[in-house]
Design a protein that fits this description.
The chain is α+β, with helices and mostly antiparallel strands. The protein has 4 domains: 5-140, Schlafen, AAA domain (Methyltransferase, Cobalt-precorrin-4 Transmethylase, Domain 2), CATH 3.30.950.30; 145-208, no CATH class; 214-378, Heat Shock Protein 90 (2-Layer Sandwich), CATH 3.30.565.60; 396-479, Arc Repressor Mutant, subunit A, CATH 1.10.10.10. It has helices at residues 5-8, 26-39, 60-74, 112-115, 130-140, 160-167, 175-180, 195-201, 205-208, 237-250, 271-284, 317-321, 330-338, 348-358, 403-415, 423-430, 435-448, 471-479; strands at 17-20, 42-46, 75-76, 82-88, 91-98, 107-108, 118-121, 124-127, 184-187, 190-193, 214-220, 226-233, 254-258, 263-267, 294-298, 302-308, 365-369, 372-378, 452-454, 467-469. The strands form 7 sheets. The protein has a 6-stranded mixed beta sheet with strand order 12-11-15-16-18-17, covered by helices on one side. A hairpin with a 2-residue loop joins β7 (118-121) and β8 (124-127). The longest helix is centred in the N-terminal third of the chain and has 15 residues, at 60-74.
Length: 481
């Protein structure tokens, strides 16, 4: 139900509310109406000064007609808002109510359908890029990105053993099961994987979706100036839930309570809330977007889970907090549901807030930033950051975060005993696909420690660059045999 206009005048501008003085500059006003129609609807009130003073409209009937003509002439597809006149403190105001449109994306005719599409972010309007415009059109048509076919892929491109491991031996993964879960779909008379199937279990997921991974970081203090530890998670999405939790646990403190029946571990971070926020990010990320992965940032006072994509059209932060749910990726959500990672449809965000209240924690925050959504989970008390490790001098394994990486680093040194190799050759031997991860966790620490050196030190970025073992690296191998 729409609020009385007197109450709206007391509120700040936001995602669904904006004030304008008059129609003297119609273009920004039209952009706001387009953004409302493309995002979550909203109300534009004309006759209010920048300082919030109600000044009214001099000739309301003439201004109403002018506004109607402006909308008809400047916006496509055709937009039909409700325009009403109200009197407040003896002054007449125009209120323009725009609903989320089924004809989106709307655009400003003067800028065209590629540059004239606007969306609403907070109290401002943002130009939509090509990927977001496509997403708006898909959602208006009732289509979803993760249900789209990938004709160039086949069942052989899915990691079937990993799928069976996730579902368990009691579940038969046959053609009918794949069709039911929409992991396969019919395309031109044959069965092909959907984008959701490749996102979930693709053998080469990042070849097709290069930002579908998770970046985790533990920072000293309360900002991103000083990073203490980091890792990149490239697991299949269901397994990534566990991997993210392991990273967070590594930097949390644990104690134990012994009840009458069993021991209960108690962590210094709210794992139940964080698990819901992590799953929400994995399920609701806009994987059609390009530019950055899902990010998990652990600070001394909070943990932030950040996922790519605007809120779905029609959704607001208040809707999410109240338990309203819209599913961006139904294929991914269905599989998470089958794997018991989701207990009840649409209850995850609400449980985050309920759990915070039950534990006496500050209320979590949900913030839209640029083309991303950030969930901020405050900690009960400041988490002390572990002391910084000493610089690597004797063992390259001091710079890594996982024991299996330490083994790979030792293998890398042994490989170089046989002669210089390029970065690509080393990654191939070690079966490490992600270039940035290999450079930050293997090459850089080994170079810093003096265990290896470049064959072309004056041209570090040369395509002919190779790496060779140093005398110190040879001694390191001997010391650790």
């Amino acid at each position: 139900m729409m609020q009385p206009i007197e109450q709206q005048l007391l509120q700040p501008e936001g995602k669904q509310l904006e004030f304008k003085r008059d129609l003297s500059s119609p273009k920004p006003l039209l952009k706001t109406l387009i953004a409302f129609a493309n995002t979550a609807g909203g109300q534009l009130i004309i006759g209010v000064a920048d300082n919030g003073e109600v000044i009214g409209v001099v000739d309301p009937l003439a201004e109403e007609e002018r506004l109607t003509n402006l909308i008809a002439d400047a916006i496509a597809p055709r937009l039909l808002p409700n325009i009403e006149l109200f009197t407040v403190a003896g002054k007449t105001l125009l209120r323009v109510e725009v609903f989320l449109s089924n004809s989106r994306p709307h655009y400003l005719k003067g800028l065209g359908p590629e540059q004239g599409v606007l969306v609403r972010l907070g109290s401002s309007n943002r130009q939509a890029d090509t990927q977001l415009i496509a997403e708006l059109g898909r959602l208006a048509a009732g289509e979803t990105f993760d249900a789209m076919p990938m004709p160039e892929q086949s069942l052989d491109d899915l990691d079937l053993p990993a799928m069976q491991q996730q579902f368990g031996v009691g579940i038969t993964l046959d053609e009918q099961k794949f069709l039911t879960l929409k992991l396969l779909t019919r395309y031109q008379g044959r069965l092909v994987p959907t984008k959701g199937a490749v996102l979930l279990f693709g053998k080469q997921r990042q070849l097709h979706f290069d930002d579908a991974w998770i970046q985790c970081g533990r920072f000293r203090g309360t900002n991103k100036v000083d990073i203490f530890d980091q890792c990149e998670i490239h697991d299949h999405l269901p397994q990534a839930v566990h991997s993210i939790e392991q990273f967070l646990k590594k930097h949390a403190f644990k104690s134990a309570e012994f009840g009458a029946m069993r021991r209960q571990d108690i962590w210094s971070i709210p794992l139940t809330m964080l698990r819901e926020a992590i799953i929400n990010a994995l399920v609701h990320s806009d994987y059609s977007q390009r530019g950055s992965p899902i990010r998990i940032a652990f600070f001394d006072d909070r943990i932030e889970i950040e996922s790519p994509g605007y809120l779905l059209p029609g959704m607001t932060v208040d809707d999410m907090k109240n338990g309203v749910s819209m599913i961006r990726n139904p294929v991914i959500a269905r599989v998470f549901r089958e794997l018991k990672l989701i207990e009840q449809w649409g209850s995850g965000v609400r449980r985050i807030f309920e759990e915070a209240q039950a534990q006496g924690l500050p209320e979590p925050q949900i913030v839209e930033i640029a083309n991303r959504v950030r969930v901020i989970v405050p900690l009960a008390q400041s988490a002390a950051t572990p002391s910084r490790p000493e610089p690597v001098t004797q063992s390259v394994t001091q710079s890594v975060t996982q024991s299996e990486e330490a083994g790979n680093q030792s293998r890398m040194l042994i490989l170089l005993r046989n002669g210089p190799l390029s970065s690509g050759e080393l990654r191939e031997h070690l079966q490490l696909k992600h270039r940035a991860h290999f450079r930050s966790h293997f090459l850089a620490p080994a170079l810093q420690a003096g265990l290896i050196e470049m064959t072309l030190p004056d041209s570090p970025n040369s395509r002919l660059q190779q790496y060779r073992l140093t005398a110190q690296g040879e001694q390191h191998i001997k010391d650790n045999q």
